[in-house]
Structure to design on (248 residues):
């Protein structure tokens, strides 16, 4: 091999090694980045004041399966916060929600003002909503908000909506799944706060401590805790193909 050929061969080997190292580094960062996202969970709880200990119970279950858990409570859960929300492997929404004309709306902790989010209100992405007859109006967001402002945020995410009517209609569930969620689980009708707290704690225990699949955990919870005693609502999940989803 001539001196010139040796130089050319050495240059090709060096270039190959550089490409290989760069590829390995990229894959390592990508995988670690994905694992970081998957191993994060968030509890979104505008109803925190109703039972401040509930967050700790749910967080403990998720942390036991290796998740780093973030929590956002009360009035911190705003429309703007949801717009900028990061990506998580598990999202627990302990919120009021309702179904109106086939569309499901989840309530924030932000008091309503007609002067805020005007364009979003006109676009039917944000609405005012009343948690109870005695309560003040708050902002609520719907499926078009998820599609417009939370695009691609839920890759592989399990979305847990603890409020009323989360699966009376499927538009919100479809929006989360379209943006990458692996599964969406909620109630097929109205539910009391006390009953949803008990039922979803049971479901999360089944998925974390017993390591059941989503389908198994929903069946187990509906059998053990039962339907809401006042409204006869039960927990359901979407889509049907997500029955095998697991936590962790």
């Amino acid at each position: 091999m001539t001196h010139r050929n040796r130089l050319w061969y050495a240059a090709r080997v060096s270039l190959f090694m550089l490409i290989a190292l760069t590829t390995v580094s990229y894959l390592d960062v990508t995988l670690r980045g994905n694992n970081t996202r998957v191993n994060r969970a968030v509890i979104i709880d505008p109803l925190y004041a109703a039972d401040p200990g509930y967050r700790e119970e749910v967080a403990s279950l998720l942390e036991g399966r290796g998740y780093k858990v973030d929590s956002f409570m009360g009035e911190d859960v705003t429309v703007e916060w949801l717009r900028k929300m990061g990506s998580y492997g598990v999202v627990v929404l302990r919120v009021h929600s309702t179904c109106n004309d086939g569309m499901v709306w989840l309530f924030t902790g932000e008091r309503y003002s007609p002067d805020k989010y005007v364009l979003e209100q006109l676009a039917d992405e944000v609405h005012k909503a009343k948690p109870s007859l005695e309560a003040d109006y708050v902002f609520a967001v719907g499926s078009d908000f998820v599609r417009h402002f939370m695009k691609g945020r839920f890759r592989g995410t399990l979305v847990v909506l603890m409020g009323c009517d989360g699966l009376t209609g499927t538009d919100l569930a479809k929006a989360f799944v379209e943006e990458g969620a692996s599964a969406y689980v909620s109630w097929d009708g109205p539910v009391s706060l006390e009953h949803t707290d008990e039922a979803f704690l049971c479901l999360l225990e089944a998925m974390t401590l017993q390591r059941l699949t989503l389908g198994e955990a929903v069946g187990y919870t509906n059998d053990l805790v039962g339907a809401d005693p006042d409204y006869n609502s039960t927990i359901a999940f979407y889509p049907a193909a997500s029955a095998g989803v697991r936590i962790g």
The first strand starts at residue 40 and ends at 45. Residues 3-36 have pLDDT under 50 and may be disordered.
